Write the structure tokens for this entry.
Amino acid sequence: MNGVIAVGITNTTASQRAVEWAIERAAALHHDLLLVSVVGAGSGVSGEGALVDEVVAATELMLDATVELAGSRGVRAEARIERGKPLARLIEVSQHAQLLVIGRNRFRHADGVHLGGQAIRMTAGAHCPVAVIPDRDLFGSTGVVVGVDGSDVSERAVRFAAAEADRHGDTLTAVTAWSPLPVPMGTGTYPPEYLANMQALTEEESSISLAGLRQDYPDLDVRVVVASGYPGELICREAEHARLAVVGSHGRGAIGRFLLGSTSEAVIEQMPTAVIIVR
């Protein structure tokens, strides 16, 4: 199903924001929507059937209302109820979608605000790019931020982000981080020449990664940020007021496909804005 944006739908406010985001994108790109809600398969406990029937009926009403909302914006939408584990079902759906969109609620622990691991596992296992939409108003946010590290998946993320920024007339901020060689504590400070050379080398690598953008997007405003630090932290800092952050996933792992690159995971955990993970 080419040109289809799949949306995982629940009855949360974050999911509602994800739906609005997906409808707006589908309308702009003339794509269709596939609205997917997953109801658990159940365990066969006595009396469970009536509960499942009630949940399915409520879910159908929610999906029907969402299809109607999309139609009022000129977007064709199909609704589907899946049974089973949400993570597995949505990963399966992602095989036939151009983009998978999910909402992400925040919840608070004693040591701060965190995101659930479900979004991380979803982005790690999906077969297409995944947009994770935070439960907050992004109105007025501008700019697209992308992480750059010279890898193949980073190159795809840069291309994706450049197309997004160009389409909206946004500034593209390309972020590259570097870290000095780890040394045992107490062995002295880094020589200034070494730090300057690391900065210069990383700037050169960043320029190589962005070299083709001027030709493909001559009107695109590109801002380059190269700094020492952790990539996830730098990207989140730059994306705090941005419309979108784009990062590459460093792959589906051998164990259940649910391994994600540390940078991607850090950005999803902090969720400075809407985030798209590109494969």
The mean pLDDT is 89. The longest strand covers residues 32-39. The radius of gyration is 21 Å.
